[in-house]
Amino acid sequence: xxxxxxxxxxxxxxxxxxxxxxxxxxxxxxxxxxxxxxxxxxxxxxxxxxxxxxxxxxxxxxxxxxxxxxxxxxxxxxxxxxxxxxxxxxxxxxxxxxxxxxxxxxxxxxxxxxxxxxxxxxxxxxxxxxxxxxxxxxxxxxxxxxxxxxxxxxxxxxxxxxxxxxxxxxxxxxxxxxxxxxxxxxxxxxxxxxxxxxxxxxxxxxxxxxxxxxxxxxxxxxxxxxxxxxxxxxxxxxxxxxxxxxxxxxxxxxxxxxxxxxxx
Length: 264
Prior knowledge:
By secondary structure, this protein is α+β, with helices and mostly antiparallel strands. It contains seven helices and nine strands; from the N terminus they run βββαβαβααββαβααβ. It has helices spanning 48-63, 97-109, 130-137, 140-143, 184-197, 229-238, 241-244; strands at residues 6-8, 16-18, 22-25, 85-91, 119-125, 156-162, 173-179, 214-220, 249-256. The chain has a four-stranded antiparallel beta sheet with strand order 3-9-4-5, with helices on one face. Helix 2 packs antiparallel against helix 6 (229-238). It is globular.
């Protein structure tokens, strides 16, 4: 693992330690529905007879489509080449639920495992040396003496494709995530992070507002992706704390994300 690792612990917040090419700082949406799983709304816009006929037509159409495999025959490495230094938030875990979900989905789909459960705060910083970035990382505890604002329970489960160049998308990958929500406290805190790493306002990249935090649980290559929302939901059901718990930011870590994920 190629980290540039500096960490700042939750207690006390001024303690630092090295572990290698990633650097982290330890610290901890709206409520999910009671069912804990995405629901389905039925629409009563046609008669029973029409519905039966339409269902038969859909079934026949679906039967002619190729079935998308949910597991690659051979192990897949993520091909996308990332760039720069990247700041991650690492959420607290309950019985390693996030890490177990990441491992489970990697095995289920035969894809490369995400090296660390995380939410991205700032991606692809190329304007700082590793030395300068580590120095700024060490300043973060002083910005948040009471810790990073806590995140509520996830508000969604998503599996989708990203295409570099689309609004808010900086890479071309297939991914699965737990979606969280931000509030005014998170927005203010993230602004402080951006101001720290981009002190010159005219050089500071414009970020998407409101911030849409998410914790990725699986990545795959978009052209041949085997990721399946059904399998992601099954995985979430096996680890019910994923949607049931509010979470603190346990660590803020700085990663050298130049190259493919396997090179980090």
